[in-house]
Design a protein that fits this description.
This protein is α/β, with parallel strands linked by helices. It is 27% helix and 17% strand. It has an eight-stranded parallel β-sheet with strand order 13-12-11-5-2-1-15-14. Helix 7 links the parallel strand 11 and strand 12. Bound molecules: alpha-D-glucopyranose and calcium ion.
Length: 560
């Protein structure tokens, strides 16, 4: 296959609402991004994936779209979008938008017609969504069609009085799921996608892409995820989008889908297939859940990090796609806690663990996605009140924890550890008021540590986390680290993260301690011709037996 631009790209995931506010309303916007385009050049990033910018009541920060063709007034105008595309392209930076095909907002005109039998377009749009009649219990009381649970907690069904039906929503109740079996609906979504392509966008991240098909026999299940996730037929829909819209227009795509088998992975992003170019998968995420916790269950309970699992997951993906597809590497996104708080240590070892996480991830092959703020080691939020949080998921889950017997403090700690809001607080530009994000109180509070952790400060320090990212990104390009061949060393070791990545010019050897305590590591490597390329304590010689400090990590560059 001819080499594509995205194989050499370093992608920055930009959370628009929290990046930079230009017009003093406390909300990040397009002009804010335009004013910072030089920043991406400086960091060495050449593609930006921007979170949903469409018109939306913002129940789920823009993933609930009420008009696909309009820019949210929070973020600017279509003219701003055109200006961004033009200025970014001048700087050789590609722009990727978030494409939400699984659902709309309940305030979208389609749904307004769908739910109202008196609406002139009711007939047509009712079938754009997924409806089921009520069931009745032995007392004749209405009950939901199934007990399926939404990804945000709570039922997937919401009752609609005027039609005496329930509609399906696998996320919030303000996000009804679209019916991908409806040909008109698909045609409308394809036309919409093409419209943004014609405007000049370079690619898309396709939201919730493995949920498009549902089991229309609606079997009983609790939570029932298998009935609305990864049902084989969704591949047909994606291929249709690929063949008709993405590939003929040479648009780059990355799908979002969890839990793919090898066969599925190849379907999604095999070089020969026409669904996506790359896949955002989640195998390495949430490798520290305490599955026994009954009070804040699932992802909400923090346990010990399973380092073996993280390494094995990445390795599994490298193996699966070897020669047949292209990997994405990333630590976290806007749906997860900050990686430094999650897999590192954001207090005593902020600097060391931040760099350890950079070395371990960014010397691996594949196309990296760096998440806004990661490059300066931004941490989880420090919020003390429930109403400091913003995410729709937080409030349903808080009620769940209370029902399960959590105290307020236990519930708040779970939120500060695990909520999606952790990754969404305003970018910490400098130590001025509101971290230089805005002149007015931001839509969501800044984290107080911005006086200490901010870009301006890190730019000054050549050894900062920021300058570490910058240096790694330069070498990624120079030495084509993305195309390297990776071999993990002692992958079953529970504490270390060690591997070699063989590139055309050199072999990068990463030796890292993922733990907060000192450990010993054995390296079956005997080379003389190497340099100590980077280290997060002090440079030191490569030896077969090494004693590593907490989070100590060293990168050696071995001559070929
Ligand atoms: C994806 C997004 C998430 C959003 C959901 C519904 O998982 O990453 O932020 O809430 O889809 O659109
Ligand atoms: Ca603004």
């Amino acid at each position: 296959m001819k080499r594509k631009w995205w194989q050499d790209a370093i992608i920055y995931q930009l959370y628009l609402r929290s990046f930079k506010d230009s017009n003093h309303d406390g909300i990040g916007d397009f002009q804010g991004v335009i004013s910072k385009l030089d920043y991406f050049k400086d960091l060495g990033v050449n593609a930006i994936w921007i979170s949903p910018h469409y018109e939306s009541p913002m129940d789920d920060n823009g993933y609930d779209i009420s008009d696909f063709y309009r820019v949210s007034k929070d973020y600017g105008t279509i003219e701003d979008v055109k200006e961004l595309l033009q200025k970014a392209h001048q700087l050789d930076i590609k722009i990727l938008f978030d494409l939400v095909l699984n659902h709309t907002s309940d305030e979208h005109s389609w749904f307004e017609a769908a739910k109202d039998p008196n609406h002139p377009n009711h007939q047509k749009y009712h079938d754009y969504y997924i409806w089921q009649p009520p069931k009745y219990d032995e007392h004749g009381n209405k009950v939901m069609p199934t007990q399926w649970r939404s990804w945000f907690g709570g039922p997937v069904w919401e009752y609609n009085e005027p039609t005496n039906e329930y509609y399906l929503h696998i996320f919030s109740k303000k996000m009804p799921d679209l019916n991908w079996r409806n040909e008109d609906m698909k045609r409308d979504l394809k036309a919409m996608t093409k419209w943004w392509i014609d405007l000049g966008v370079d690619g898309f991240r396709v939201d919730a892409s493995n949920h498009l098909e549902k089991d229309w026999t609606f079997p009983e299940g609790h939570p029932g995820y298998e009935y609305f996730s990864s049902i084989p037929k969704h591949h047909e829909y994606l291929e249709e989008m690929g063949v008709e819209v993405f590939y003929p227009n040479d648009i780059m795509t990355m799908g979002e889908a969890g839990g793919a088998s090898k066969e599925e992975a190849i379907k999604y992003c095999g070089f020969e297939n026409k669904e996506f170019d790359m896949l955002i998968q989640f195998g390495h995420c949430w490798a520290d859940c305490d599955w026994h916790n009954q009070i804040t269950p699932g992802k909400w309970a923090k346990g010990t990090i399973d380092v073996k699992h993280i390494k094995n997951s990445f390795n599994h993906w490298f193996e699966m796609l070897k020669g047949q597809g292209w990997n994405i590497i990333y630590w976290h996104n806007h749906d997860q806690p900050r990686v430094i708080s999650h897999y590192g240590n954001d207090s005593m070892y902020h600097d060391q663990s931040g760099k350890m996480l950079a070395y371990t991830l960014y010397f691996m092959p594949g196309t990296p996605i760096v998440y806004q703020g990661e490059e300066i080691g931004m941490t989880n939020v420090d919020y003390e009140n429930l109403d400091d949080f913003r995410d729709v998921e937080v409030f349903t889950e808080y009620d769940n924890f209370m029902k399960l017997g959590a105290s307020h403090e236990v519930a708040m700690q779970a939120l500060r550890d695990r909520a999606r809001d952790n990754a969404r607080s305003p970018f910490q530009w400098d130590d001025s008021l509101h971290a230089g994000f805005s002149n007015v109180t931001p839509w969501m509070n800044t984290v107080k540590n911005y006086h200490d952790i901010n870009l301006a400060k890190q730019k000054e320090d050549e050894h900062s986390i920021f300058n570490t990212y910058k240096k790694i990104f330069q070498y990624r390009k120079m030495d084509d680290i993305s195309s390297g061949t990776i071999t993990f060393i002692d992958i079953e070791n529970p504490d270390t993260y060690c591997y070699k990545n063989e590139t055309t010019h050199a072999i990068y050897l990463v030796v890292a301690n993922f733990r907060e305590r000192e450990i010993d590591v054995t390296l079956p490597i005997d080379v003389k011709d190497y340099e100590c390329f980077m280290s997060n304590y002090t440079d030191r010689p490569l030896m077969t037996q090494m004693h590593l400090k907490p989070y100590e990590a060293i990168v050696y560059k071995i001559k070929k």
